[in-house]
Amino acid sequence: MEVFLKIRRKNTTIFLDCNEETPVRELKKMIEGITKVPVNDQRLFKDEQLMDDYKTMAECNLTSNTAKAQSPATIGLAFRNEKTGTFEPLEIIPYSTPPELPDELKTVESGQNAE
Predict the structure, then answer these.
(1) What are the backbone dihedrals phi and psi of residue 41, each rounded to the nearest 5 degrees, phi first?
(2) Quick one: DSSP state of residue 76?
(3) What confidence score (pLDDT) does residue 104 get?
(4) How confident is the model at residue 114 (pLDDT cuts 50, 70, 90)?
(5) Pick from 19, 84, 104: nearest CA to 113
(6) Per-residue pLDDT averaged across 89-99, rounded?
(7) In the CATH scheme, what architecture does the domain 1-115 have?
(8) I want to staple 1 with a disulfide (CB 3.0 to 4.6 A). Which of 17, 64, 93, 98 is the partner?
């Protein structure tokens, strides 16, 4: 069964899908293809817990029931700093919220424009 994922790092979001039997290491290879960051320089987190490279998505509780297309599971991503050789802390910047609608665009319960 397919698993739908939202990979988050700072301001970046990557949407990926894979199989429940896909190992975490294979997911990292998919991310490497997009970011050009080697597998060994990536860390993936689910619920702020480091994911084991050799566990499958299902073993990490990422299944077609928990990671649907309309509500993908969020996975955190951290990279190794090339200069220091240490991994950056997991940082996910929240999405911005849209501004409030101007009064002219708000509608009353009857569905007509407010006056």
Answers:
(1) -105, 15
(2) E
(3) 83
(4) very low
(5) 104
(6) 93
(7) Roll (3.10)
(8) 64
What b/e readout covers 77-110, taking b as 16+ CB neighbours within 10 angstroms? bbbbeeeeeeeeebebeeeeeeeeeeeeeeeeee
Q: Which tokens go with 32?
A: 């490497």
- Asked whether the whole model's pTM tops 0.85, one would answer no
Residue 85 tokens, joined: 């050789």
The DSSP output letter for 59 is G
* 94 residue type, one letter: P
DSSP state letter for 82: T
Which residue type, as a one-letter code, is found at position 21? E
Q: Which amino acid is at 2?
A: E
Residues 6+ apart with CB under 8 A from 108: 114
Q: Which two tokens stand for residue 2?
A: 């397919």
User: Rg of the Cα trace of the chain?
Assistant: 19
- Under the banding of pLDDT at 50, 70 and 90, the label for residue 112 is low
Give pLDDT, residue 110: 46
Written as six digits, the tokens of 38 are 């080697």
